[in-house]
Amino acid sequence: MDSRYYEFLPIDLDSHTDLCIQFALDSTFGSPKRLTGEDGLGAQRYIQRMRDKLSADPNSCVFIWLDGEVVGQMNLGRFNNENIGYVHFFYVIPEWRGKGVAKTMAEFTDEWFRQRGFTTALLSVSMDNGRAVRFYVRQGWKDLGPRPDRPDLHNMEKSIIVTF
Length: 164
Prior knowledge:
alpha+beta; 5 helices; seven-stranded mixed sheet
């Protein structure tokens, strides 16, 4: 078990918009158009979606801090207004990958869904990102196959065990 003390704190978009965009661009695997969009306004739409999520639930978009440094980011929410949780964004900065941060984030994610009464959660992952796919499978996620709207991504599902 990782004995370091991580803090999961709501993102202050007034101070960290550029960092959120930087992380989102890094996660697009060399295809910034996925974030920016054809009109170049996708990053602004992304930040506005984060503002909306944070307004509804301040813990839906968090930075993961370790010793005063941001080491990751998660954006969590609901899938299509259903009673299903959704991992919108799960990111560990490159220099912290393979050091236990993602496992700690996954534990936080499960608890976040559990506290909100979700018994099922979904996420999408690029099958080109073998490291992420292997990580999610180790964390109990099941591959549901390609997304109908984005065959380059696969949907993954996890049952969230509710404890009483």
